[in-house]
Design goal:
Elements (H helix, E strand, L loop, with lengths): L1 H20 L2 H16 L1 H12 L3 H40 L8 H45 L2 E9 L2 E8 L19
Helix pairs in contact: 1-2, 1-4, 3-4, 4-5
Length: about 190
């Protein structure tokens, strides 16, 4: 998203400067092309590959990144152009030609876009943080358990509603079934 913001700021500034010099079409294409190439194409490619492999959840994550980058590009463009527009508007108002009413529309558009993308991003962040806490707690318990039977925990992941614990070690000793809390989710 940082690259999307930087590319949009550069493209907006380039478009503004080229408008003053009369070279609008080429500068707009270059700036927009840069923003698209580095921030929009990769998430769409990942979404396509994820859908092809049957990973719908990963595809949705890539689409969310794509939409986030679109909002970042448009929002940054609005902010940059509004800043330059405010200077121009202030000069027009000082001369008695313009009004302050034209500033509100970009602010409203930016606010709607931020709400549109902010809700799914917030929900995703809460989910990721919750899973990280759950995995951290499970790591401590699994490490103690694995050491008691001569194993080593090699990884913990949350997939769907399940907590998967990967372990490495010798086959369980007689009388010990290698289970933790009644489940045997570990893999050799």
């Amino acid at each position: 998203m940082l690259f999307a913001i930087l590319a949009a700021a550069a493209a907006s500034d380039r478009a503004r400067r080229s408008r003053q010099c009369g070279a609008v079409p080429r500068a707009r294409r270059c700036g927009a092309g840069t923003a698209i190439a580095i921030s929009l194409v990769p998430p769409l490619a990942v979404a396509g590959l994820a859908l092809e492999s049957g990973s719908v959840i990963q595809a949705l994550g890539a689409v969310l990144l794509f939409l986030t980058n679109v909002v970042a590009i448009i929002g940054t463009g609005i902010v940059v152009m509004s800043i330059y527009g405010l200077y121009s508007l202030r000069n027009q108002v000082a001369r008695g030609v313009g009004s302050h009413a034209s500033v509100g529309r970009p602010v409203v558009i930016l606010a709607v876009m931020l709400v549109f993308i902010g809700v799914p991003l917030t929900l995703t962040c809460i989910d990721v943080a919750s899973r990280a806490v759950q995995e951290s707690k499970a790591q401590r318990v699994a490490d103690e358990w694995a050491q008691s039977v001569g194993w080593e925990v090699t990884g913990i992941a949350t997939r769907g509603g399940e907590l998967l614990i990967r372990r490495r070690g010798a086959v369980a000793a007689a009388g010990h079934n290698g289970t933790l809390c009644g489940t045997s989710r570990g893999r050799d």
